[in-house]
Amino acid sequence: MYSKLPNVGTTIFTVMSSLAIEYKAINLGQGFPDFGMSEELIGLVNEAMKNGFNQYAHMNGYRPLLEAIAEKAEDLYGAKVNPDTEITITPGGTYALYTAMTTVLHPGDEVIVFEPAYDSYIPGIELNGAKPVIIPLTFPDYKINWEEVRNHLNEKTRMIILNSPHNPTGSVLSADDLQQLRSLISNTNILVLSDEVYEHIIFDGHRHESILRYPDLLQRSFVCFSFGKNYHCTGWKLGYCIAPAEMMKEFRKVHQFNCFSCDTPKQVALATYLRNKDAYLQLGAFMQQKRDYLQQLMRQTKFEPLPSFGSFFQCYSYRNISTESENDFVQRMVKEYGVVAIPVSAFYQKPVNNQVVRFCFVKKEETLEAAVERLISFH
Length: 379
Ligand code: PMP
Ligand code: GLN
Known about the structure:
Blueprint: H1 12-22, E1 26-27, H2 39-50, H3 63-77, E2 87-90, H4 93-104, E3 110-115, H5 121-127, E4 131-136, H6 146-152, E5 157-163, H7 175-185, E6 191-195, H8 215-218, E7 221-226, H9 227-230, E8 239-242, H10 245-256, H11 264-273, H12 277-281, H13 283-298, E9 304-305, E10 313-317, H14 326-337, E11 339-340, E12 342-343, E13 356-360, H15 365-375
Parallel strand pairs: 1-11, 3-4, 3-5, 5-6, 6-7
Antiparallel strand pairs: 2-8, 7-8, 9-10, 10-13, 12-13
Helix pairs in contact: 2-11, 3-11, 4-5, 4-10, 13-15
């Protein structure tokens, strides 16, 4: 048998987006905006291409972009990051996560993952021969039970994967969570893989507790980011990883034989655009408005909101509508009501049915209005 992932099918995002096309449904499933990106940024890409930036970039990334990222890391989080040795540009956040896992995981290593978990983590661990040790987040507030983490640590534990703001639930880590993590792993060799692709998409006055704020944690972390999320261009598939020089040296050994280097004109454009701080500093307020608008519209339905403090997503309980499994429920929602959502059970390995589905609110107001119009009669 040649399959390395015998129990894995097609990712839920592709499945649900295909159903959206098949049933001409409104797609609040997969996380992407249905509105345009910055014209200025598009102009900068065109300019870069016209100016001849069309050949391979440096494998680490375009130097001025690395510098701009280092400045941003210091500005926002007080982190001293060396642009030459501690940052690598990657084709998206997912690739950065996978490369980090491949860089350090060996067969038999254990990796702590919290469920619900973004769907690429567990296959990434398994493809590298390591073992996911799954710890459920509390329900319904989706927080980490640190006592339970302590009980699962042993000499085989190699890595802990964190994701804040969290996909699919929109929960965020607090400063206290980071303190708990520090005290748990400070005398161990455990590494941290921190998925921070939604770093700016955080609401209600919460502060993003980046690993970059904590020098002792950063010493043992790969921290992954995505430009697609910040600039309404998920199709660009461009991101980056920050890690201490020694770890980054190993990361680059893997990266150089996998994709080697990333899209040049977009890196050149981003090197300029990243200096426009307003573009990312205003993102949280912009997205919060969208979350609030969806919440306001959804009051007309029988769905009940779960809290979302960040990310592109808000989860809703449908327990007042039906007792069906989440899968059956979303299938019926597409086929009978013409709206796509993601079953949160897709982010768990074992079957669960909390009767919760995830909606993406990063859509035009008219899209959200049209979707909710269809959900009002849901029974
Ligand atoms: N991590 C999380 C939690 C995500 O939601 C996403 C969504 N796309 C990614 C990583 C991947 O980002 P990218 O598209 O840049 O690969
Ligand atoms: N991160 C996006 C989501 O959760 C989708 C990315 C993907 O399709 N792989 O919807």
